Automatic annotation (TrEMBL):
It is an enzyme of class 3 (hydrolase). InterPro entries: FUC_metazoa-typ, Fucosidase_C, GH, Glyco_hydro_29, Glyco_hydro_29_N, Glyco_hydro_b. This is alpha-L-fucosidase. GO terms for biological process: fucose metabolic process; glycoside catabolic process. Keywords: Glycoprotein, Glycosidase, Hydrolase, Signal. Residues 367-457 form the Alpha-L-fucosidase C-terminal domain. It comes from Potamilus streckersoni. PANTHER family: ALPHA-L-FUCOSIDASE, ALPHA-L-FUCOSIDASE-RELATED. Pfam families: Alpha_L_fucos, Fucosidase_C.
Length: 462
């Protein structure tokens, strides 16, 4: 866990409110020098959407095809196919069943807006190669030619921009499990790049020019180095000449040697949550279904994160300078199941009360309390003062909460967000430093929220 922050002024040195007019060269030294557009750090919370042909079997995970026919097939997937489909059935035969007949992008936009999320990232293409837009480079393996017969990407982009102020982003996999061109490049030890020049890069330029995403979230980077993928050349174009050059942010999955080192914000691993402040801006991409990014029909209630889990992850991540990207997996019909919708709306209700401790905040001198567990801090500059927020994950058993990290002054004022009455505090009688917050006796009907309570402290010495 983090104590005194070694990089407490990181956000004043790395993220600026403007993007430099400098032209960036296709080198990591130059590309990594580009400051992140400030909207990304300020907005903190995004929604990830994994949707594709894998949503049809909706069994095990979005890696279903690989688990069925990859190098080391997974036994339960193999048995599932034997028991439910004829011997000559292929993965491509699932595509016509990806119907999306109940897909209502306006409804999706309203759910995401109600969640309090400030950006979304939709899967444009996963490792299966099926594109959710009518790509010129994916003949008969795209959502217009087979299955939905719709431009799934364009429809959601339109709804998001028409109905919300949410930033629209796209996920795109560099590689595809079974594409013959990629397999041939691999057999040639990546000394050829036919797959990149005829498929991956044309797709990336196509989605940027057509949909103008504010996020390009790359994945599938483990199949070759960044030289093979021509990632630096693409990023130089994206930052210099693309229609989103001033607003776009990218991640770090651009080929061997990039993860957690190069690109825009860092993702490092799936569900990355280091518990301490990082030197660079990072993102925790995580799932509400603990075992899968795609929709999974066999998931039980215990497989979904509770709101207690979500607020804990959110507090840890934001306190340590990260963003949270919360994944949902729609069904093949185009529905966001009630369990996902409920969690997102509950998150939105929590943020209506406590969003001041999340949006536009910076890491404080301490990330978590040095004495009391399950308390995480954020801070926000207000004119010449700094307000400090203590996100308390567990209501204390006694009527007082001791916090060792804050140092109060005679001018300190403590407020419980969402509660209209003053909160008492005192200097500790049994500890040399810190503050004791006296928890009020609150009728259930007046409780500001059900999960994780936030105390704002003004006028601290530190």
């Amino acid at each position: 866990m983090a104590g005194m922050a070694a990089f407490s002024f990181f956000f004043t040195t790395f993220i600026f409110s403007f993007v430099s007019s400098e032209r960036y060269e296709p080198t990591w030294e130059s590309l990594d020098s580009r400051p992140l557009p400030s909207w990304y750090d300020e907005n903190k919370i995004g929604i990830f959407i994994h949707w594709g042909v894998f949503s049809v079997p909706s069994f095990r995970s979005e890696w279903f095809w690989w688990d069925w026919q990859g190098n080391q097939p997974t036994q339960d997937v193999v048995e599932y196919m034997k028991e439910n489909y004829p011997p000559d059935f292929t993965y491509a035969d699932f595509a016509p069943m990806f119907t999306a007949e109940f897909y209502n992008p306006d409804q999706w936009a309203d759910i995401f807006n109600a969640s309090g999320a400030r950006y979304i990232v939709l899967t444009s293409k996963h490792h299966e190669g099926f594109t959710n837009w009518p790509s010129k480079y994916s003949f008969n393996w795209n959502a217009m030619d087979v299955g939905p017969k719709k431009d799934l990407v364009g429809m959601l982009a339109d709804s998001i921009r028409r109905r919300t102020n949410i930033h629209f982003g796209l996920y795109h996999s560099l590689f595809e499990w079974f594409n013959p061109l990629l397999l041939q490049d691999e057999a040639n030890k990546y000394e050829t790049d036919d797959f990149v020049t005829s498929k991956t890069m044309p797709e990336l330029y196509e989605i940027v020019n057509r949909y103008k995403p504010d996020i390009v979230w790359s994945d599938g980077d483990w199949a070759g180095n960044y030289t093979y993928w021509k990632s630096r050349e693409f990023l130089a174009w994206l930052y210099n000449d693309s229609p989103v050059k001033d607003t776009v942010v990218t991640n770090d999955r651009w080929g061997w040697g990039c993860l957690c080192q190069h690109g825009g914000f860092l993702t490092c691993t799936d569900r990355y949550n280091p518990g301490k402040l990082q030197k660079r801006k990072w993102e925790n991409a995580m799932t509400l279904d603990i075992d899968s990014w795609g929709y999974r029909r066999t998931a039980t209630l215990e497989d979904y994160l509770t709101m207690d889990n979500i607020t804990q992850i959110l507090a840890q991540t934001i306190s340590c300078g990260g963003n949270v990207l919360i994944n949902v997996g729609p069904t093949k019909d185009g529905l966001i199941k009630p369990i996902f919708e409920e969690r997102l709306r509950q998150l939105g209700d929590w943020l209506k009360v406590n969003g001041d401790a999340i949006y536009g905040t910076n890491p404080w001198t301490y990330q978590n309390d040095t004495y009391t567990p399950n308390v995480w801090y954020t801070s926000k500059k207000v004119e010449t003062e700094t307000n400090v927020y203590a996100i308390v994950l567990e209501w204390p058993e006694t009527d007082t909460l001791y916090l060792a990290a804050p140092t109060p002054s005679s001018a300190t004022v403590v407020t419980l967000l969402g509660y209209s009455y003053p909160i008492s505090w005192r200097k500790p009688s049994t500890h040399p430093n810190g503050i004791e917050i006296v928890f009020p006796i609150i009728p259930f009907s007046d409780m500001p929220c059900q999960w994780a309570w936030v105390f704002m402290m003004e006028g601290l010495v530190n």
